[in-house]
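request received
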Amino acid sequence: MLIVMKSEAAQNDVERVKEKVRSLGFVPHEIPGAQRVAIGITGNKGGLDPNLFLSMNGVQDAVSVSKPFKLVSREVKQEDTVIDVGADRIGGRELTVIAGPCSVESRQQILETAEILRDMGVRFLRGGAFKPRTSPYAFQGLKIEGLEFLKEAAERTGLHVVTEVKDTETIAAVSECSDILQVGARNMYNFSLLERLGELRKPVLLKRSFAATVEELLMAAEYLASRGNYNIILCERGIRTYETYTRNTLDLNAVPLLKSLSHLPVFVDPSHGTGRWDLITPMALAAVVAGADGVIVEVHPDPAAALSDGFQSLRPDKFRTLLARLQELAPFAGRQLTLAPSFKISATN
Amino acid sequence: MLIVMKSEAAQNDVERVKEKVRSLGFVPHEIPGAQRVAIGITGNKGGLDPNLFLSMNGVQDAVSVSKPFKLVSREVKQEDTVIDVGADRIGGRELTVIAGPCSVESRQQILETAEILRDMGVRFLRGGAFKPRTSPYAFQGLKIEGLEFLKEAAERTGLHVVTEVKDTETIAAVSECSDILQVGARNMYNFSLLERLGELRKPVLLKRSFAATVEELLMAAEYLASRGNYNIILCERGIRTYETYTRNTLDLNAVPLLKSLSHLPVFVDPSHGTGRWDLITPMALAAVVAGADGVIVEVHPDPAAALSDGFQSLRPDKFRTLLARLQELAPFAGRQLTLAPSFKISATN
Amino acid sequence: MLIVMKSEAAQNDVERVKEKVRSLGFVPHEIPGAQRVAIGITGNKGGLDPNLFLSMNGVQDAVSVSKPFKLVSREVKQEDTVIDVGADRIGGRELTVIAGPCSVESRQQILETAEILRDMGVRFLRGGAFKPRTSPYAFQGLKIEGLEFLKEAAERTGLHVVTEVKDTETIAAVSECSDILQVGARNMYNFSLLERLGELRKPVLLKRSFAATVEELLMAAEYLASRGNYNIILCERGIRTYETYTRNTLDLNAVPLLKSLSHLPVFVDPSHGTGRWDLITPMALAAVVAGADGVIVEVHPDPAAALSDGFQSLRPDKFRTLLARLQELAPFAGRQLTLAPSFKISATN
Amino acid sequence: MLIVMKSEAAQNDVERVKEKVRSLGFVPHEIPGAQRVAIGITGNKGGLDPNLFLSMNGVQDAVSVSKPFKLVSREVKQEDTVIDVGADRIGGRELTVIAGPCSVESRQQILETAEILRDMGVRFLRGGAFKPRTSPYAFQGLKIEGLEFLKEAAERTGLHVVTEVKDTETIAAVSECSDILQVGARNMYNFSLLERLGELRKPVLLKRSFAATVEELLMAAEYLASRGNYNIILCERGIRTYETYTRNTLDLNAVPLLKSLSHLPVFVDPSHGTGRWDLITPMALAAVVAGADGVIVEVHPDPAAALSDGFQSLRPDKFRTLLARLQELAPFAGRQLTLAPSFKISATN
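response:
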């Protein structure tokens, strides 16, 4: 059940509706919107009578929601969610590129990469400091030191930092040094982590597990939203199939599907989604045309020397070409590429 | 092993190379190109010495081929294959749309659809007369009668017909009435059928099985090519995964991958690849940006009344919008949309 | 809809019911049983009124069938189907082993293998003469010559021959030389082939496609049954997943599931289902305990020299151990191992 | 690299080898065995020279290990690992049954279930107190209260408790009340949790993710072992495929494969692996014949009233039949069913 308030409803009206919901034994979730406030109700199994609310002051409508996800659904909120990150925005008409190496490998590497990206007008820097790895013997990231290098890179270049938070123990440290918290594919089902991130208000980039259904991804987002954090970016990064030429099968069907089911921004990661640098550019472009709000791409100054995932990283020159293509394509998709002010990318400059 | 002939080599030189190959116990396959002829050699396990050929008249190079597919590989032929269908062409700079209903249901339905499509400038009409169906009790198509309706529709409108050939018994009948023979996903591993189609020179639209690897699709194409039929269009139409919101998972990774591995044109079927009419348009556009040479789309004058797959068919008005979007997007992808001469689609006309 | 006749019903009564079905515009399928006859009705969409039949002479019951497969379902026939092959039987209390090489490679190889198997009491010899292969350049079997070798092996040893029929063109030749016609996994969706085999009365071993659902396997069987051939053995042989240590994932869940959904015998192929000789024995035993009516196992006198699939073939001594284990296990599963009369296998003799 | 010590080697010799390993910049892992000690070395990339160790006192052999998992591999330790849980043992010749409800739902429910199981001779009680659920609105378990009920049930009946630990925050509380800590399928990639559990010595039942390869499962176990906890039980519980008749596809191939790759005990969960109560018994039996050391089965006094997973739970009477069948089958698999002393199950008592 979702209660939609009139645009002229007072905060007072909202509070009374929430009280009524609690008095019936359910939980109200206030969902702010540009035009009006809505109140999601969870805990009910579909049996609530709309008439209980329709006669209340300030209530415009009471609608039942048919999907297992509620707060993140389009049924509950029709406008696109737009997320503010500093002076930049994600979602809506923006087309956003997040770029950087798989792992922070050294101070010099991340500073150099950040400067290269800044010089192209990019606004978001990715880089892993805490790396979940299949093998306990593999490089697990520079950890706290890596976070500090990211922070320094951000301060020098003005870029926003996107980095993975791997467990509840390191949430505070990672939050301190980053603007967007990434939940990796292997942690999409880590509900304890999601619950804790739901208590923050910092944006979360939530990657789809390589074995998750679209519905499960939305349910993971619902974990965040049900605790009050609506600053969620969904991210398709490839699912596991029998195909062996590519590391994963990028499921672009999921993009228009998620956009129709949910009001949240949807990103695509063509690096993990293909596992091959030569497929990154076509698949990034395809993602945008399919409706993605942004892409997250691995860029490394020297892919052959990367400590992890070099094979799926772009060199800076190839990345510049991708940026130029994205800028060219954005208007077709009804978007504008988010770049530093007055930037104009060209593949050859 | 592939022998590349000089551009000035005489047919005589070619014949001598082929004779030499046979004398060594292998099979030569002459591969004509715009610039020069090449000769693929099959039957060898990599042990052939290039020097056996390099000193022969007219031979420019002898290269070993590392993939299990040879004749369809880019290694063997670098230029894109372009297929002539009447006065129209598939591949190269062309962006082609094949459209029509899943099944031919009646004379009136297919004539009406063909006229609608002709009026939009479309050049290729699809429609199933022989339908492989999971259930023996389901509608299996109008068969011979359906072929005749297709033929009549083609004669009236000038469209080229693309229709499925389901078994060897009906190859002659289907060939008689169609310009492109479609091999359905369920028949991709039907090697007896592929062998027989390899003996024809009629173009074949070869759909990837929903469980085939990219390599297996290319090996199926190799069956056709090894019998002499190089007029092959590869078609991605979705693979089977655990996802249930979509009928299949459209594997667009396969598009740039196939384009880099093979010289053959690559099409995408977003109708079967998604199973939902509302995903067809974004995924068709994404396919083009990923590098596809064309799309095959189900269009039905009245989807709700369709005998099969209505849920994944576009209504004519939605299809017109798709065409307009494709025309707008084609230059970005370095293409031009193949339409009847001097046609200019607009979503609103 | 299924009409169950009384055990004392006369053939006359049966005919009258069938006539009535036809007069209503549907198709009757007579299904003989040990106790009584039943009549399946296809072509109806569930709307038939049982009362139309209940008052007729000899009719005991009229039940509606809820699954898309009818004639092969347990709902329609509760007793296990038992198939006669010469003096031997498949299904019911029998536990059957089919053994032999992947391909017939030479006269000597198949005669030697047949004699080895006969000496162990085995009754069914497998061996491919027509081999569907992913590559057009791979060994495709000895074809007609291979069939003749199989026939000679059968005549010398008294074994029954199980061999693959790859296309409609070779049905007659393959039928001539074999007792059970195998439909390979890649042909499970080849409905034209299934229709032709449905017109025969020779037993068919129908392998599940590596991408088929259990329901689709039963629908393929329904193709055979709807044409009148009820002598069907279903065979699970592994499905395709992301796992790479094994060639396929053997889906033993399918065994008790198929036994509960259908009256047909169910076999398991642990050679293809695992792709590793060292997993064949444990998985063959597991299959029997899960409810399988038999196993089909690749046995080769010299696996290292096999032209195909040597890595998943057992040597004769390992196979003898498997047989001994199966004989020991059969009573637990309520079965007896089908061997030549008065045979007693021991792993050490 | 693995250093195998002589059986007569002194602890002194062992220490000197470990010191040598450290001096080379690597990490030694002492692996105790019934006959002799071994020392695994991690951190090297295969370049260590065996001669560095072969001349040292007490060293019998130095072998390189070819798989990415080392400490859990058969290469490193040939004997089966046997885990002591109180006076009971898991692994070796034991065949173990863990049974109980999906969730602890009430004090009465878990006490009643524990008593039913105790009366059948069962030694291990399962029951979830902390439940990871796809929906944030679903029942998440009784949490601490549930743990207390489990503890009381254990004290009353003498059963050992197996319960899930969902995150690092609750490790202490869960450890306090349970004898075996279960890591659920969704947490198999939660490396932070694995690291913390690796620091304990309490046995861990590690469930395979529904999308994990066999190698990834072994790498997750390696996380535990590399921190010193060798008390690991691997558990296959079904993988996710396109099949819809069953909840998951139970991959029994994994059982003999894991037994050959690793020295750890391997369990199977036929409840989650099938999702259907009617398939539990055949698949539990099949698992044992395939080589499993035990099964974990959902048993509920009243499945229809269960708060979670009732459809895949056995009623007590069906479970008694399963126990009797397992006892009958155990000798065939070279095992004895672990029951309370002098128990003799019969399906009818």
